[in-house]
Amino acid sequence: MKAPGTTGPDEESGSALFDGYLEPDRPHAGAYDEMFAADGTVRAPYRALHDAIAPTAAADLTVRSEALDRAYVDQGITFSLSGQERPFPLDIVPRVISAGEWGRLQKGIVQRVKALEAFLADIYGDAEIVRDGLLSRRLITSCEHFHRPAAGLVPPNGVRIHVAGIDLVRDEVGTFRVLEDNLRNPSGVSYVMENRRTMARVFPDLFTRQRVRAVGDYSTHLLRALRSAASVNEADPQVVVLTPGVFNSAYFEHSLLARQMGVELVEGRDLFCRDNMVYMRTTEGEQQVDVIYRRIDDEFLDPLQFNPASVLGVAGVLNAARAGNVVIANAVGNGVGDDKLVYTYVPQMIDYYLGEKPLLPNVDTFRCWLDDEKTYVLDHLDELVLKPVEGSGGYGILFGPNATAKQLADARKDIRDDPRGWIAQPVVQLSTVPTKVDDRLVPRHVDLRPFAVNDGESVFVLPGGLTRVALPKGSLVVNSSQGGGSKDTWVLAANRAPDTERELGQRGLAIAAPAGSPAAEHGPELTMSQQQQQQQSDEAGEV
Description:
Layout lengths: L46 H7 L4 H17 L3 E4 L2 E4 L2 E8 L1 H25 L4 H4 L5 H5 L21 E8 L5 E7 L6 H14 L15 H12 L9 E4 L8 H11 L2 E3 L4 E4 L2 E6 L2 E4 L2 E4 L3 H4 L15 H6 L4 E3 L16 H9 L11 E2 L3 H9 L4 E5 L9 E2 L5 H13 L4 E5 L5 E6 L2 E10 L1 E4 L4 E3 L4 E4 L15 E7 L36 H8 L8
Parallel strand pairs: 3-22, 6-7, 6-11, 11-12
Antiparallel strand pairs: 1-2, 4-5, 4-19, 8-9, 9-10, 13-16, 14-15, 14-16, 17-18, 18-21, 19-20, 21-22
Helix pairs in contact: 3-11
């Protein structure tokens, strides 16, 4: 095969797939490529994969890529882009992470989740971190997702972050850095499982060359964490998944997780509160609910405490949680922990609560609410990426080097008007991984969202996570709402791993839903417009 930086197609061998891959004039040429070193040699974790796909003819790769899309359409795995339902783009070339590198990432993610758990318990309790002067009270109380009704609400096993999605990027020298934390309702794990299952079916020969750690048991870990969260006197807790409904962009994930865990998928109208207890309407009568894995934002969860116009939540559920009769997962008020300004203080939290040095560094960040850092941002805005603190989904981001003079002027005004609402970061040249575009493989930028599950005893990190890829040439925005796609993420098993770790043939859990589904007796029926009113908004931590 020719070196990636050369040209001259050879259609019979299929080597033309990588022709010109490392061309010097490609966008963001200084980015770290995960398959190829700068001299064109293949990095060790990718050698087996490279050797498998390099001889593949472009036509064969196209056929298999189209099969991936068809498989997603047939399963209803779509997302809305510009008002149209489309299959979630799954690229045919997986991302590979070595066993040693994953071990380091896993330790850093566990450390971060533990520190954030301690932080949330502290600020909704005695607020010692504020009293000791590490954080100001104004930083906490000015956060949009700091909710006073959550103060003093202590979960039975102390867990507030049952599921965390930690977004990571790789910088120009290959170092993984934390881009942001998602502690409310992180989405995307369903794509991790479905990506693997679809890849194994459409491209099985790739899995025969190396051992890849399984991801199909995620729901087992999630169910254990949710059952462990129930009050100690519950030997067989009733767990439900609370969804906004079919119009929500992550509804496929809600239904998949409920099905795999073998628990009920309910809407707010299926539940009601009486005497600080939560009950579910079923064909067999009322059943008490012990744990609610909610996929509804705080503001719509309880109309008695938050938005009184909400038709999605359950009136009185927060009082039931405060009385210790039900557990809400993830906990109400977690959003203060994934605030983009609070994020900049997580390294100090790790030292304060755990007495340790951070294993995963943050992306360097300037805080506009601090006068000296605001001045720097205003003076260098054309070199930075400006982000709204409360933004999500890639919306509201300004890339200074690409901005017009008017956009920069408007952004400077916004910063002066609301310095608490903005952070700025250097332009991080996200690492690249080969991605199929037309009949070639070209570098495209990626990030990584690993998922961590906390059961109160330990934090499980799903091997791999969701790799999102920016499909437009030169784009650094990976969100699906901005035209991004995904890749299957392979964590290679250590040599001592048993053969059962091999992913080929692995199928996700397929537990039949129990009888007595909440269908026969509903609360008041909602009109179509009422249902759509609140379901369209994406969850925090959107894909």
